[in-house]
User: Which sequence fits this backbone?
C-alpha cells in the first residue's frame, strides 16, 4: 500500500481561509497564547473552528462579541468553557454550532446565575448561567456538513489517471483520502491530501495516479474531520489501457452563445455517451445522451442563451469511462 501525502490547491479567487484554533493551555479566551490557530498563536476570529482540548479550561473573562461576523463559528469542547466572572458573554454569529463532547462541559464558576453570563447565536440565547453546568454529549445548533462537494472526477490522460474534485465549503476538514479498487468492493489507500480546515470559497484539488490499474477500476473520495469522523463520496469508474491515447477535446473553447460546441472523445463505436454541462456550483444546464457511430466522432452540443456566459465543467461519460474539461462561454 502506497501512502503519499500531497497538498495541491487551486483557488478560483483570492480568499481568506478561516483557521482552526486548538487550545494549548488553560487560560483566558482573549489571550493569543491560549490557542494555536493554523499553527500560530492567535485569538479566534470570525468563521474559525475552535477546539477546547481535553484537560484545558478556557475562560471567558471579558465579553467576546462575534455577532457581527458574516461567517458562522464552530466550537468543539472536549475540556471546559468557563465563565469565572459575572457579566461577560460569548456572542456568536447566526448558524454557529457548539458541540460538547463526552468529558467536556460549559460552566459558570463565578456564580451570579440568571443571564449574567450567557452564550448567544445570532442574538438568541442558547445557554445562560442559570441553566447550570452543561456536560457532553450535547450540541447547540444543527451540525454543519464537513464539506460541500461540487464535483469529483477521474479522467484518463496519457498513461495516468487525473483525479480532481471541487469543494464550495469546508468545515473542520482535516484531510482527504483517495481510494482505488479493481472491483468496487476491495479498496486500497492511494494517496492523502490535506484539507483546507475551514473555507467558504470554491477550492479545486488535483492529483494524479501515475500507476493506474489496467482495464476498469474505481476511485472513491473519503473526507476526515479533525475529530476523526469521516464520510465517503461517490464512486467513479475508469477504463484504462496502457499506451492507448485517450482523446477529449472541445472546439471552439471559449464558445459563444448560439454556437455549437464540438466534443470529440475516444469512446468506442456504439457506446452510449452522456454529455452534461454544469457550472462551478454544480447546477446542471445541459444533459443529453448520444450513441456514437465511430471512434473520434464529433458530438454537437448547442450552446443557446439558456446557458449564461461564464465558466463551466463539461463531462462526457459512458458506462466505464468519464472525461471532463473546463468550458468558457462568452
Assistant:
Amino acid at each position: 500500500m502506497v501512502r503519499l501525502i500531497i497538498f495541491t490547491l487551486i483557488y478560483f479567487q483570492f480568499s481568506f481561509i478561516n483557521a482552526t484554533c486548538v487550545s494549548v493551555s488553560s487560560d483566558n479566551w482573549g489571550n493569543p497564547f491560549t490557542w494555536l490557530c493554523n499553527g500560530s498563536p492567535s485569538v479566534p476570529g470570525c468563521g474559525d473552528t475552535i477546539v477546547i482540548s481535553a484537560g484545558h479550561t478556557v475562560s471567558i473573562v471579558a465579553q467576546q462579541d462575534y455577532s457581527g461576523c458574516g461567517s458562522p463559528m464552530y466550537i468543539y469542547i472536549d475540556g471546559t468553557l468557563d465563565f469565572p466572572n459575572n457579566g461577560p458573554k460569548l456572542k456568536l454569529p447566526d448558524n454557529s454550532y457548539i458541540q460538547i463532547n463526552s468529558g467536556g462541559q460549559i460552566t459558570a464558576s463565578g456564580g451570579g446565575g440568571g443571564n449574567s453570563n450567557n452564550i448567544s447565536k445570532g442574538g438568541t440565547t442558547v445557554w445562560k448561567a442559570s441553566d447550570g453546568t452543561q456536560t457532553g454529549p450535547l450540541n447547540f445548533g444543527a451540525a454543519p456538513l464537513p464539506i460541500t462537494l461540487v464535483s469529483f472526477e477521474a479522467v484518463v490522460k496519457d498513461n495516468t489517471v487525473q483525479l480532481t474534485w471541487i469543494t464550495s465549503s469546508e468545515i473542520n476538514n482535516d484531510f482527504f483520502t483517495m481510494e482505488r479498487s479493481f472491483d468496487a468492493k476491495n479498496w486500497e489507500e492511494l494517496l492523502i491530501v490535506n484539507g483546507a480546515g475551514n473555507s467558504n470559497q470554491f477550492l479545486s484539488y488535483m492529483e494524479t495516479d501515475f500507476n493506474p490499474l489496467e482495464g476498469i477500476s474505481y476511485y472513491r473520495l473519503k473526507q476526515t474531520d479533525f475529530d476523526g469522523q469521516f464520510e465517503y463520496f461517490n464512486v467513479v469508474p475508469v477504463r484504462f489501457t496502457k499506451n492507448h491515447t485517450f482523446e477529449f477535446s472541445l472546439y471552439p473553447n471559449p464558445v459563444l452563445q448560439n454556437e455549437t460546441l464540438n466534443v470529440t472523445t475516444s469512446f468506442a463505436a456504439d457506446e452510449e455517451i452522456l454529455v452534461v454541462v454544469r457550472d462551478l456550483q454544480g447546477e446542471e444546464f445541459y444533459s443529453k445522451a448520444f450513441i456514437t457511430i465511430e471512434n473520434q466522432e464529433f458530438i454537437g452540443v448547442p450552446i443557446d442563451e439558456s446557458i449564461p456566459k461564464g465558466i463551466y465543467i463539461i463531462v462526457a461519460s459512458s458506462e466505464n469511462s468519464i472525461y471532463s474539461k473546463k468550458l468558457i462561454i462568452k
Q: What stands out?
A: The chain has three domains: 20-140, 145-240, 248-329. Confidence is low (pLDDT under 50) at residues 1-16. The chain is about 0% helix and 55% strand. Residues 63 and 88 are 4 Å apart (CA to CA).
